[in-house]
């Protein structure tokens, strides 16, 4: 479907979600409606450099219950490292994915939503132009967030997985175009607590799996090129490492990672014939587990990585770039354990909106 077809379909199906002239608001982070029959339904959309993801949920006693979801690799930032522009092909792929998201939002009777875009739209010279195009064609209002907001939402989305005994934790989100990392100190006040007061240092590293794989050829990775990637990221981590110096010395310190890289490693570690979020989210891996799997991946050919059911064609050229970022973090902050989170920005958005609405104080 091209942009013109998307526009025609949008006009046929959008109804009150896109007709501003009729006095109806666009669907975006400012939209709030009440639905007395089913209670508040919240939606969070994360449009990144590599993925387009949507979660729709209702609040529950201990968090929220997912009622609809969508995820597709769109590679919106493909080729941006050289051109600094979103390509027409990438924008078309993304529009198709966003059209599906729009349908799910409508069918789920969403009452409050926040739709964010991160590094690709933030950095591309035509990023804001694309966001405007999305609004005009689909009636979806994308909020291009800054690095600090992205880092906070990543932390908010997976902080509940921190070991409650840990007095220090490094949380990181390896994205397609950037990597957000934060040091949290002190124990949290429970799984529903806002972690903002525990964040001591945060940073956004200007490198992700797509940009790094394009720079170092993710198809053909040797031990030498892998180590070059690790060294490159280690240098970019230096400023954060200095500010978070000694974080790894606190009791029960561990790493907590959220991204396709760490979830892929988790799936390989478990030997899954098909990726299963329920088995990977919250999984603990030891330092040796990670080292063994990464070494195996480096020894694989591109074709062998494609054949792995937890990698496939969509991640075969990206997975080792992600591992290099992970290794740079591991070597900077040595830890016996990594906990894997198959959750992140979308969950952070949902938790933040529900916390703002006071749903857990209302006995939701």
TrEMBL record:
Pfam families registered for this protein in UniProt: Ppx-GppA (PF02541)
Residue ranges of every copy of the Ppx/GppA phosphatase N-terminal domain listed in the record: 56-355
Domain of life: Bacteria
Compositionally biased spans, kind Basic residues: 23-33
Ranges where the record places region Disordered: 1-35
Name the UniProt record assigns to this protein: Ppx/GppA phosphatase family protein
Organism: Hohaiivirga grylli
Upper classification of the organism: Bacteria, Pseudomonadati, Pseudomonadota, Alphaproteobacteria, Hyphomicrobiales
């Amino acid at each position: 479907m091209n942009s013109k077809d998307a526009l025609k379909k949008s006009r046929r199906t959008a109804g009150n979600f896109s007709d501003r002239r009729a006095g109806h608001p666009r669907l975006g982070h400012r939209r709030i409606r009440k639905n007395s029959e089913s209670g508040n339904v919240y939606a969070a959309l994360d449009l990144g450099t590599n993925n387009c993801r949507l979660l729709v949920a209702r609040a529950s006693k201990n968090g929220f219950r997912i009622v609809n979801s969508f995820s597709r690799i769109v590679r919106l930032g493909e080729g941006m490292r050289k051109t600094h522009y979103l390509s027409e092909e990438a924008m078309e792929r993304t529009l198709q994915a966003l059209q599906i998201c729009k349908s799910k939002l409508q069918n789920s009777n969403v009452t409050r939503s926040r739709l964010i875009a991160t590094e690709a739209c933030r950095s591309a010279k035509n990023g804001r132009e694309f966001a405007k195009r999305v609004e005009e064609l689909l009636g979806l209002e994308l909020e291009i967030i800054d690095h600090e907001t992205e880092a906070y939402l990543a932390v908010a989305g997976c902080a509940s997985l921190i070991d409650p005994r840990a007095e220090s934790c490094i949380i990181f989100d390896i994205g397609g175009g950037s990597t957000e990392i934060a040091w949290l100190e002190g124990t949290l006040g429970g799984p529903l607590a806002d972690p903002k007061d525990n964040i001591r240092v945060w940073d956004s590293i200007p490198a992700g799996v797509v940009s790094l794989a394009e720079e170092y050829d993710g198809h053909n990775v040797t031990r030498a090129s892998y180590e070059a990637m690790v060294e490159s990221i280690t240098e970019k981590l230096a400023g954060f490492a200095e500010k978070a110096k000694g974080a790894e010395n606190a009791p029960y310190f561990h790493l907590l990672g959220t991204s396709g890289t760490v979830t892929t490693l988790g799936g390989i570690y478990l030997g899954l014939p098909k990726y299963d979020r329920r088995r990977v989210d919250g999984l603990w891996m030891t330092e040796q587990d990670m080292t063994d799997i990464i070494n195996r991946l480096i020894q694989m050919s591109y074709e062998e990585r494609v054949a792995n059911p937890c990698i496939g064609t969509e991640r075969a050229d990206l997975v080792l770039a992600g591992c290099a970022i992970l290794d740079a973090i591991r070597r900077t902050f040595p830890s016996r354990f990594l906990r894997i989170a198959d959750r992140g920005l979308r969950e952070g958005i949902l938790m933040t909106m529900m916390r703002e609405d006071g749903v857990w104080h209302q006995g939701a």
